[in-house]
Design brief:
193 residues, alpha+beta
């Protein structure tokens, strides 16, 4: 009988130690806004869907290509770019206005870059850089075809009269014998500020 009581007391003591350890562990663990959860995953999915929709719409209505052509040929950079070579905010284009409304006004930061292949290497140039994306950033990409006859844009977005074929654009002509200038990949990265 004494042995049964000893086992019972031992089991109760072990259970109390386990419950105390579990309670201590739960109190030590911090839950922050950046802690992964189903709600933050839902927000990331929603941001990715909005970004995909913004890129798709801009590609369909031509404002994406127009922003890619928002190139200051004499400066060899984007119009309104900093010394670092990118715009610190949405570009002052129709597509930039959409980015402002869809993301910045809702507390969502973004980076916009263009990727291209040069000498067999994948290169990229930032158009907009609003900082370092968080671990929970969403990335969407879209291919855009540029033609030799596409005209660069002036600061007011009107055609400048200078075609890609005649410009010193950031991306080199992929095939000088054809009217295709290059196929570039536009990348939009979005994250909560």
């Amino acid at each position: 009988m004494d042995r049964g009581q000893a086992h019972t007391l031992e089991a109760i003591t072990a259970a109390m130690i386990l419950v105390s350890a579990l309670a201590f562990a739960l109190q030590v663990t911090a839950v922050t806004p950046l802690t992964g959860s189903t709600s933050s995953q839902h927000i990331e999915n929603q941001q990715a869907a909005v970004a995909e929709g913004v890129l798709a719409t801009a590609d369909e209505n031509g404002t994406l290509a127009s922003t890619l052509l928002y190139w200051n040929d004499s400066a060899g950079n984007w119009h309104d770019a900093t010394d670092d070579g990118y715009v610190q905010g949405p570009p002052p284009t129709a597509f930039g206005d959409v980015l402002e409304q869809a993301f910045l006004e809702r507390g969502i930061a973004f980076d916009l870059s263009v990727y291209y292949v040069e000498d067999g290497e994948r290169e990229h140039v930032p158009i907009v850089d609003l900082g370092e994306p968080s671990d929970h950033a969403s990335t969407v990409r879209r291919l855009v075809t540029l033609s030799d006859g596409d005209q660069l844009r002036d600061p007011d977005e009107s055609p400048s009269g200078t075609t890609l074929e005649d410009a010193s654009y950031v991306v080199e002509d992929a095939d000088e014998d054809q009217s295709l200038y290059a196929v570039v990949e536009v990348e939009l990265v979005v994250w909560r500020m």
